[in-house]
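Reopening this one. Same input as before:
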Amino acid sequence: MGAGRCWNGYNFPLYSSALKSLLGFNQQQLTLLGVANDIGESVGLIPGIVINKLPPWLSFLCENSFLINIIAFLLWLALVVATNSNAWFGTAVLVTNMRNFPLSRGTVSGILKGYVGISAAVYTVLFNMALGDSASKLLLFLTLGIPIICLAMMFFIRPCTPASGEDSSVHVHFVFTQAASIVLALYLLISTIISDLIPLSDTLSYILVAIMVIFLMSPLAIPVKMTLFPVRPKNHIPATDSLIIWFRKKDASDIEILLAVGEGAVKKKRKPKRGEDFTFVEALIKADFWLVWVVCFLGVGSGVTVLNNLAQIGFAYGLDDTTILLAVFSFCNFVGRLGSGAVSEHFVRSKTIPRTLWMTCAQLIMVVIFILLALALDGILFVATAVIGVCYGILYSVTVPTVSELFGLKHFGIIYAFMSLGNPIGALLFSGLLAGYVYDAEATKQGSSTCVGPDCFKVTFLVLAGICGLGTILSIILTVRLRPVYQMLYAGGSFHLPQSSGH
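Same output, byte for byte:
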């Protein structure tokens, strides 16, 4: 499934402080580098178009030609180009797997986005235990290590024929992958805490990293098992019976075509309805498209503001080492992504509840948390980081299947890539301009380049609370609009196209 792919955009907090100190940047300049990170990571319009024209593995190859040459570019442009690799192989993996498993879209999104969310914790363990807390070594690994990994794995990402009906073996494989990811996430969180509290020898550190790699690669057991022990489908039909069925279907389709011609339906081009395949232009003129975009923009933009400024938030609230803070955010981000995928899949099938309801809940909770952060209550930092991580993960994960259900999978790559633009735009407005400006203004009052105290981000948190409040209202409207659509799509507990569809 490509769940073990590396994601180099979420480790910016690991080396952001080193960049700030080395280059003498203020916080606004540093957050603009974070924006470059988000732009490169999320601008996937070109990969979204390419994925319909070329095989998925070619997207992996394209990203390496960019990544290897980042040293030749200026720092901001280098971050844009380097993290744009995420858009290339992220699009290839996500689009391919959504098409391979169209009956389990929420589960697929939760698993893939969950591994992306936990990647920051993977890099944190690697950074602490194998690279000696060296930002330069981490950047060298990103420059050389990731292209090698991608080149080794790219041919395994390919389209396959989706299973018809509810395939029990597919369900078992999903459960195994979810369990493996949960074990990995817990291991990463515990390892990070232990390494922060207890000095570890080099030998023990390398052993812990090796165990992490084993957990990370454990989903590969599924294709190995399927290759060594292939299972013959239970509903296998003899060749003679298959031929008879084919002729019957062909006669039926010929009759339908003749009837359609007689009624003049073939000559008339009908606009797609929600649940069918939209082109990008057709989706752009839909109110639901822009409602989803704005809701995602407001919620994800608020979450990424916290992520980009996490190190400085920790220092402002009195932490000397923010490594655990990043590990907590990463773990909870993973929980939100994986959990919302599975939970939304359950309720959309059993109760036809729109997935956007969980986006509403996430933004409402973020309103409360941002207000509590602004009030600087004792002990709020780690709790708030954890909760925002969960909500950020929910917003990211739920958007994926929602877009595919409303506008189809045929042009899913380009449509979802456009939706993802809410991340860098939100980062630019809320992180680069708002948070950076407020932080530097407060630092100037204190007569230092480093701001200390809750006032460093108080105004930012209050504004983000208002932004998430608006996002809550819009997501409620969106959920009400989509309820009849989901009742149509998931009537009887299984996904099907509208009856009037021409598919």
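So the earlier flakiness isn't reproducible anymore. For the record, Residues 12-229+273-493 form a domain with the Growth Hormone; Chain: A; fold (CATH 1.20.1250.20).
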